TrEMBL record:
It is found in: Cell membrane. This is Glycosyltransferase family 39 protein. Its EC number is 2.4.-.-. Coiled coil: none annotated. Residues 68-215 form the Glycosyltransferase RgtA/B/C/D-like domain. It comes from Rhodococcus sovatensis.
Length: 503
């Protein structure tokens, strides 16, 4: 192995460790939110139950759920544990960014690319998210590295490896199929289409053929994303702020200034960028633009599928642009380091907010409420799960975080068990049908108190109008009161209210 390759491996490993450490810090603090509870609740099931579930409901996340099932069977399903694979994936992706960038630039610029990737707010968010987002970034960058290795190697084994990783990537996250179009463009940009057309075509066809049964199941379950809101006038903000600079607009401003400054330096130097540098810029721009264009076009013509977080796999391309720009600033020796420091400072507010207890959308608090239940529900106490204004299922998500917290309670409200029926969430009995004769203490999990309408818009462009709610004035309490229950002690969290009733 040459010294250059050794240097690249060492630099990639170091940046990968840095990205992992930055990502994993505080990952155990935020409460699990709706999507993460879906991960935990689905992945806890037996292999048979999980297969039944994926056949009917959520195959698009099947590969990820199986991975977390295996991971959790060894390391458990705590907040730290289920998020740790994402932090590891961020480190792996950062190493891949350095490796990819080093094929087009010197090692210093490649390291800049990896550091920019690690600092991107979308990446630091993905590191504390128990979903597949971080893994999609790792898959996208390494399958692209494999493509470049296959293009420069005479061994057909690299094309086999490329086909295998491409298949795994598509099964991991179906939108990664758009990377095929990006790779087609790479062949054109590198002028390797005529030479490599046949092996690339065969590898892609093999990957798509193997993934085809999965793609058909996903297509049949397309209704699972029927909740995604249509594009509207907020789209520009979603793209230029939320998509890569989530919750940290100043980071986006600093990043933009770096790009402009690099362009000015390049023009003033009157030196043409190297062909490798130009190719890397072209690849990065295509990687950013093509998946987004496909998703936006489909959303406008067919049905909405675009979400900011679904494009996490384009963050390596953004990092490539940032690394190239920082490399250009080296005309003033200290300037790129000042620029990186400015990015790091701009990241602090968003990074910190991502690691607060109530960091997740709508301040979802399922972990905290689960801890409360474990500490307070007594043996034989009854539990019921009501609704919340934003929740399409029920507040049973509190139990789904860790069922052991409710092990000694009487569950009097369950109508249909999700694991047995192959569905994502359990179904509750109508409150009027619940038998409460054996209950002297009843814990009711419901919405928090609100005096007026709360209008919210999430980064996903979801709009919520949360209506006023007072448990004492609700039809639920009227029914429970008619059965002899009175409120003993209500406790309100960020989004959930737990009411202890006695009779």
């Amino acid at each position: 192995m040459g010294s250059g390759r050794v240097g690249t491996v060492g630099a990639a490993s170091s940046v990968g460790v840095f990205a992992f450490v930055l990502g994993v810090l505080g990952s155990w603090v935020p409460s699990l939110w709706y999507d993460e509870v879906a991960t935990v609740y689905s992945s806890r099931r037996s292999i048979g139950e999980l297969l039944d579930f994926l056949r009917s409901t959520d195959a698009v996340h099947g590969g990820y759920y199986f991975g977390i099932h295996l991971w959790g069977s060894v390391f458990g399903f705590s907040e730290f544990s289920v998020r740790l694979p994402s932090a590891i994936a961020v480190g792996v992706a950062a190493a891949g960014v350095v490796t990819l960038a080093a094929r087009f630039s010197d090692l210093g610029a490649a390291v800049f690319s990896g550091v920019v990737f690690a600092l991107l707010p979308r990446v630091t968010w993905a590191a504390v998210e128990a979903r597949s987002s971080a893994l999609t970034a790792a898959a996208a960058v390494w399958v692209t590295v494999l493509l470049l290795v296959a293009l420069s190697s005479r061994s057909r084994l690299w094309w086999v490896a490329y086909a295998v990783v491409l298949t795994v990537s598509i099964v991991l996250f179906v939108y990664l199929a758009t990377i095929v179009v990006v790779h087609f463009a790479i062949l054109l940009i590198l002028r390797r289409f005529r030479v490599s057309m046949l092996p690339w075509d065969l590898a892609v066809l093999a990957a798509l053929a193997v993934a085809l049964p999965f793609l058909r199941v996903v297509q049949r379950q397309a209704g699972q994303v029927g909740w995604i809101p249509p594009l509207d006038s907020n789209f520009a903000r979603i793209v230029f702020e939320y998509q890569w600079f989530l919750g940290t607009p100043m980071f986006g401003v600093v990043f933009g200034v770096i790009l402009v400054a690099a362009l000015v330096f390049t023009v003033r130097s009157r030196e043409r960028p190297s062909s490798e540098g130009t190719a890397c810029i072209a690849i990065a721009l295509v990687w950013i633009a093509v998946p987004m264009a496909i998703m936006v076009a489909y959303s406008l013509v067919k049905s909405p599928i675009y979400l900011d977080r679904y494009l996490t796999f384009t963050t390596p391309a953004v990092a490539l642009l940032g690394g190239i720009a920082l490399g250009q600033l080296r005309a003033v020796r200290w300037l790129p380091y000042v620029a990186v420091a400015a990015l790091a400072l701009a990241l602090i507010p968003g990074y910190s907010s991502q690691r607060l207890y109530g960091a997740k959308p709508l301040g979802m608090d399922f972990s905290e409420v689960n801890d409360f239940a474990k500490a307070n529900i007594g043996p034989g106490d009854c539990v019921l799960f009501g609704r919340a204004a934003w929740n399409p299922s029920s507040q049973r998500l509190v139990e789904d975080v860790d069922p052991s917290a409710f092990a000694n309670a009487q569950d009097v409200g369950l109508a249909i068990d999700a694991a047995e029926s192959g569905q994502l969430w359990d179904v509750e009995k109508p409150l009027s049908d619940v038998q409460l004769d054996t209950c002297t203490v009843l814990w009711y999990f419901t919405d928090r108190e609100r005096d007026e309408v709360e209008n919210l818009r999430l980064t996903s462009n979801d709009k919520w109008a949360l209506q006023p709610y007072h448990f004492e004035d609700s039809s639920e309490y009227a029914l429970l009161s008619s059965r002899g229950f009175r409120i003993d002690s209500p406790v309100t969290f960020d989004g959930t209210q737990v009411v202890r009733l006695v009779r």
